[in-house]
Design brief:
A: alpha/beta; D-Maltodextrin-Binding Protein, domain 2; two-stranded antiparallel sheet; elongated; B: 2 domains; four-stranded antiparallel sheet
Chain lengths: 421, 312
């Protein structure tokens, strides 16, 4: 046991006593906090932005007062102010109008223009033109405002005055209150969303970074031939576990350091604005489960990467063996981001039990919806067992691979070791 | 001889179809310098790895008679053929790490490190990362990592490979000094001249089989008596027919006569002088290299027989 501890101590020391570790402690919280601030920055900038649009109505002029309908701040969902140019055009001159406005759009003077045909009133369809059509916020706002304006015009046909129409059409703002064990509290969807992503990223990044460090250190010992001396004093299993546990402790130190640094920032009040949503997520049970899934997820991946380190002689050679690990990690991140829209979908639920996808998905679900306590518990048990299984497999491959030099390995060969190990 | 530090009993190791070590037995007397010699690929490293429990034998046993209590591997020092240290760590950190792996408390390790570094002129490098050291200095540090815990048995694989002449001398001195302090040294080498200079006993291995195992004195008296080297203008054919001559290996004017155990060397020498012009003639003590070739070559002729009778 004491020898295991010698290996662990060295791993912790070489990881924690480095400049990059210190830099990481400070930069990541800043990045994450920046991420949480981003929506506010984006929001505030778009509120003051004026969007230039043009509307051409073919052979009609029912929308002639759309300028007033759009530009006046009618509903609370308005996120942009509109500068509208309206033209009623005869069909023969439509093409020249399109050409002219296209040029303005390319010159940057016009954000978009809409061609309204008389068929719109029955088919509920118009065409819009824009240079950049990947601005979801802009088009969502445009669509909602334009629709409201058209509805107002329609209502005018029933004798409803424009002002009344606006009031009738006003959106209802919904303020979220999260229900927790300790009552309800105000929250904000976007901040919650980003805080959740931040936690998933934090978990996956740390697990991967330290898992790879295990692999790199194994490769270093193998290629520098230190490993043979080590193995005359410790068993391969002790060596492997020493590395896994040592880097794990380093990872936990890193996380705790982040929490302390992040807490300091919060304490200073830098992010008091977002602190509300964070404290919403940082319930004690969430913190506990984050710790559990972090440790178990790390355990699984580092056990995996330690045998990869043992069978190769360089990081380039390790590529094919570690690609599946990276793919699974990225996949679990993508799935959890996609599932944010619906954290209780069957997919998200099922995958939150399947290692190695479970850490990211379960953390996402836990932070975003209420999950019965047996679910994270079961998922953690499955992940823990998978980690033990992976360690068993790793130990068998590690033992043989670590002493093999200068020989490229094939998968069937590794499989043979597993069977006869 | 009655108190062997290490007894290896008929160990065998196969890798796939290759038998790396075949029914090999050894007994290393306490306090001796024991050389394991044989060409590259003979199975020396595999044998050493089994002795150190880095790999397990397919059959056979390895018995270590070292102080009980604690981890037995703590009583052994090992330097593999391929050497390495943690390049980013300092000399001191490396030494402390390897000492603690052998259960030496830091409080004890520190004075030993200082003493040894001073002894090997490395004191100035104590706080430097290993990567800044020259190759020769790294080799010294490497050697220190294997002896800081004052092992009873020192196992050195291909000890002299990669050593410059100065370090080779230092290493030989250290080995003999170790022996004076009662440390048993087991080392392997394919450079037989070096083994000859430091060994008390040797074991020759070829293709995983032991072909010879004896003290150096025994080997010399057994093989040394029976060879005669002659240079001069002599008829090879008549040399072969002389009484007591078993075989003649000739190379132009140089003849190596292998003699039977009953040969009268003095009688032979005077006969040979009468056969023609003799420039030089001497009783030869064959080198280990020579003996190895002879023993292994003999084995090659009657392989099955040799293998059957190898470890009885």
């Amino acid at each position: 046991m004491s020898k295991l501890w010698v290996i662990i101590k060295r791993e912790v020391r070489i990881s924690v006593w480095t400049r990059s570790f210190l830099i990481g402690v400070f930069t990541l919280p800043i990045l994450l906090i920046g991420m949480m601030f981003l929506p506010r920055i984006i929001k505030s900038s778009s509120e003051t932005e004026v969007s230039h649009i043009a509307i051409a109505e073919v052979n009609d002029d029912r929308l002639r007062s759309i300028d007033n309908l759009l530009s006046s701040d009618t509903t609370s969902t308005v996120t942009a102010r509109w500068d509208v140019e309206y033209r009623s055009v005869a069909r023969p001159s439509l093409d020249s109008v399109i050409v002219q406005w296209s040029e303005s759009a390319l010159a940057g003077d016009l954000d978009a223009f809409i061609i309204v045909d008389t068929t719109m009133w029955t088919a509920n369809e118009v065409t819009f033109y824009a240079e950049n059509i990947t601005r979801p916020r802009f088009f969502r706002a445009l669509k909602s405002e334009f629709t409201a304006a058209v509805v107002a015009v329609r209502l005018a046909g029933y004798g409803v005055l424009a002002d009344s129409a606006q009031q009738l059409l006003a959106d209802i703002e919904m303020t979220p209150q999260r229900i927790g064990d300790e009552g309800t509290e105000a929250t904000d969807f976007v901040s919650d969303f980003l805080a959740t992503i931040a936690f998933v990223v934090l978990l996956l990044m740390t697990v991967l970074a330290f898992g790879f460090q295990v692999m790199r250190n194994v490769i270093e010992e193998k290629s520098s031939r230190i490993v043979e001396v080590l193995l005359s004093s410790v068993s391969p299993f002790q060596l492997m576990m020493g590395k896994v546990v040592g880097q794990g402790i380093a990872a936990i130190i890193q996380l705790v350091a982040w929490i302390v640094v992040g807490g300091l920032f919060m304490g200073v009040g830098v992010i008091s604005a977002t602190a509300g949503s964070l404290t919403g997520i940082l319930r004690s049970d969430f913190v506990l489960w984050f710790g559990v899934f972090f440790v178990l997820g790390y355990f699984f991946f580092s056990a995996w990467l330690s045998w990869v380190g043992a069978v190769v002689t360089s990081e380039q050679e390790a590529q094919p063996f570690m690609t599946p690990a990276i793919m699974l990690m990225s996949a679990s991140f993508l799935v959890s981001v996609i599932s944010l829209e619906n954290p209780d979908s069957v997919w998200a639920q099922v995958l939150s039990f399947i290692p190695p996808m479970s850490p990211a998905l379960m953390i996402m679900r836990l932070s975003f919806s209420s999950v019965p306590a047996w679910q994270p518990l079961l998922s953690a048990i499955i992940l823990g067992l998978a980690g033990v299984g992976m360690t068993w497999v790793s130990a068998r491959i590690f033992r043989v691979g670590i002493l093999l030099m200068g020989k490229r390995l094939t998968v069937p060969e590794i499989y043979r070791w597993l069977r006869h190990g | 001889m009655s108190d062997p530090v290490l007894v290896v009993d008929r160990i065998t190791k196969r890798f796939g179809h290759l038998t790396a070590v075949n029914e090999l037995s050894l007994s290393v007397p306490r306090g001796s310098v024991y050389g394991m010699i044989g060409p590259n690929g003979a199975g020396k490293t595999t044998t050493i790895r089994m002795i150190l429990d880095i790999i397990g034998p397919d059959s056979g046993t390895v018995t270590l008679n070292v102080a009980t209590g604690g981890d037995r591997s703590d009583r052994i020092g090992y330097m593999p053929e391929e050497r390495g240290l943690y390049r980013k760590m300092t000399v001191e950190q490396n030494l402390l790490f390897f000492a603690s792996l052998k259960s030496v408390p830091n409080a004890e390790a520190h004075p030993r490190i200082d003493r040894w570094l001073k002894r090997l002129d490395l004191s100035d490098w104590k706080k430097r990362p290993v990567e800044e050291l020259s190759k020769g200095m790294q080799q010294k540090v490497q050697f220190l990592t294997t002896i800081l815990h004052e092992p009873e048995l020192l196992v050195l694989d291909e000890l002299f490979s990669g050593l410059d002449p100065v370090n080779t001398e230092i290493m030989k001195d250290l080995l003999l000094e170790m022996r004076l302090h009662g440390t048993t040294v087991l080392f392997s080498t394919h450079v037989m001249e070096q083994a000859e200079k430091v060994c008390d006993a040797i074991c020759m291995i070829d293709h995983g089989n032991k072909v010879l195992d004896a003290t150096l004195d025994d080997i010399r008296s057994e093989f040394g008596r029976n060879a005669l080297l002659v240079e001069g203008d002599l008829p090879a054919a008549s040399l072969k027919t002389l009484p007591g001559v078993e075989s003649v290996r000739s190379d132009r004017r140089r003849f190596e006569l292998t003699l039977g155990s009953t040969a009268d060397v003095h009688e032979l020498m005077s006969t040979i002088v009468g056969l023609g012009y003799v420039e030089r003639m001497e009783r030869q003590r064959p080198s280990l290299h020579h003996i190895f070739l002879e023993v292994a070559g003999y084995k090659g002729d009657t392989l099955a027989q040799a293998e059957a009778g190898d470890d009885t």
